[in-house]
Amino acid sequence: MKIPHLTAVAALVLAAGCSASEAGTNGRDGTGAPEATVRISASGDRVRPDQGVTVTVSGGTLTSVSGVPGGFNADRTSWKTTWTLKPGASYTVTATARNPKGKVTAVTRTFRTSRAARTLGIASVTPAAGAKVGVGMPIIVDFTGPVANRANVEKALEVRAAKGDEGVWSWVSDRRVVYRTHTYWHPHQAIGFTAHLAGVRAAKDTYGVRDVRRSFTIGASNITVANAKTHYMTVNHDGTVKKFKISAGKGDRPDTITTNGIHLTREKERVTTMRATCQGQPGCDDYTEQVHLAVRITWGGEYVHQSVNQYYYLGRQNASHGCVRTTPEGARYFFDISQLGDIVDVTGTTRRFADEPYADDWKFWTVSWNRWLAGSALH
To answer: Cβ–Cβ contacts within 10 Å for residue 257, how many?
Structure first.
């Protein structure tokens, strides 16, 4: 989404007026038509970077503007920068216009933007540059400081999907914003993300100072439904559907019920050690066991993994400590195709994933679209 970020430039245009250099020659050009008059809003050495530049013309149409990226209005009587300007930087803008008789007027203006008293940057972007991820993968942006003017920053965040998928940013905190599509991404496409942060006013006297760009790829469509009532999971891999026996959380205590809802795969390990320390809780057994072909789906410790023996329960009964256990064949298949951000929808349990207390769990698909929109500063 590409949304110009300019405010209050009209006042600057009026204040700038029309200097002799802007107007060109104030007389006529010999054809009976006055020359076009060009005005450039920015001047001097203290231009606010978040207000950008506006170019207008009277008595003609604009033919070109160079120096910074921008766009014309429908009748080419005005032009404005697409994004904000870098703080503490020098710019030269040249604008040309033509009057109705074809006479060309050119105006050049050099100016400098104000420096930022305080700066805002991006601490991290997930997924990493060049990653191949699943169709449920969000874009998670963490900032180096709190963002007070969320709308200003959100306007500067651009996402381009090769297949035209669209989504919305939603603020999780004053330092984190997350982009989620309305429906899952189309598989096998390139995604480009640009934070046009340079010059964005994020808070009083606080500006972004540089843009950040990332690109990544949506890989195969892996959508798994694990049903704790039927004791089977169905794996849809780019339209190829396979079904495997499972055993979910046994539910003898609330923390052994597998969480219900749409999860995202986080990481995978060929062998991982799982431990539980009950600290005297009744009905709880301490255990330490090595688990093979483990794909994490919650930060609280739930995985899809190969059953540690106890194959009898698969397809029959829930007997795990909260994970989704499956057959060696099912675990191998699921492990091999898994990538960051795949969908694992657990159904048939009473413990809601959305209610879990772990702050870093990716619960973004447990939120309705209307609630997601409510977290945007622009919707």
So the answer is: 19
CATH for 118-219?
2.60.40.3710
List phi, psi (to 5°) of 198: -60, 120
The dihedral sign for the CA sequence 27, 30, 32, 35: negative
**The domain made up of 9-112 is a member of CATH 2.60.40.1180:** no
- Rounded to whole angstroms, the Cα distance separating 119 from 197 reads 10
Which residues of the chain form CATH 2.60.40.3780?
9-112
Q: Is 329 helix (H, G, I), strand (E, B) or coil?
A: helix
Give residue-wise pLDDT tens across range 36-65.
Answer: 999 999 999 999 999 999 999 999 999 999
Give the Cα separation of 200 and 52 in Å (integer). Answer: 10
Distances (CA, A) of 372 to 2, 157, 171, 177, 318: 20, 17, 9, 11, 33
The CATH topology of domain 222-362 is: L,D-transpeptidase catalytic domain-like (2.40.440)
B/e letters for 207-238, b = 16+ CB within 10 Å, e = fewer, are bbbebbebebbbbbbbbbbbbbeebbbebebe
Q: Which of 21-30, 32-41, 154-163 has the lowest mean pLDDT?
A: 21-30
Q: What is the DSSP letter of 30?
A: S
Give the span between the Cα atoms of 330 and 188, in whole angstroms.
24
Give the model confidence (pLDDT) of 319-349 as tens digits: 998 999 999 999 999 999 999 999 999 999 9
Q: Ramachandran region of residue 300, left (φ > 0), alpha (ψ -120 to 50) or beta?
A: alpha
Cα 372 from Cα 182, distance rounded (Å): 9
Residue 375: phi, psi to the nearest 5? Answer: -85, -5
